[in-house]
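Work Package 3 (structural annotation) set out to generate three-dimensional models for the target panel prioritized at the project kickoff. During this period the team completed the workflow that converts sequence records into discrete structure tokens, so that structures can be stored uniformly alongside our sequence database. As a representative example, we reproduce one entry of 232 residues exactly as it appears in the project archive.
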Amino acid sequence: MDIKDLKSAWNTYSSMELSKHQLGKETIGDLMKTRTKTVVDRIDRNIQIGILILLVYIAYVILDDVYLSKLFLKNPVEYPEWLIPMDVFSNLLIVSTYLIFVFRYFRVKRSFSSDNELHGLLSGIIQTLKTYRRMFYLAVIILMINLIVSFIAGICLGIKLKAEELGGGVSHLPMSKIFLICGIGLVILVPIVLLSFLLLRWGFNKLYGRYLIRLNETLLELEETDEPEVVE
């Protein structure tokens, strides 16, 4: 075999290897696009579920304030006015946090196409979900603080009413009764706060958290695929 035949054979081999490599990248790219579309479709579905839950929550808050509290409590206890701003703030934060997330998410989807701008789409959705996760946990923490403060205020009001019932005011109420009421309150409060937090965290991970992990994995694979090969 002379030098010309050797060059021709080498060029043919190089072309075949390059074609195989390009075909492999195209296949991987199509696979990642399909995976991304599947995850995005599921996030879209979960957003609809989240909006439904949010509407139910808003309806419950309004219904409880206007009707339920008066229906179930024959002698309604006067709600401390200083707690009202905390309730309003925590409720507005929960609603606004979710609406901001939905707005940013669909803006990212409109800005990028999964067919030819997959990297931008993945990066945008991942950043949006990470921001929402921080905002969500901030809202949850404030909600838990509101719950704890409201519960403690209820215990204090209960001690005051018990003292008035026995006569003589709080100063005449035995310390053993005060400690007993506080102890029972803590036994009730701690599980409520813990279970509420775990339930909210489970809900977030169920609706969005696991898809954030999948999107991060897909973005990493895409970046590895797009890295240029080092020619030795």
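Residues 24-226 form one domain.
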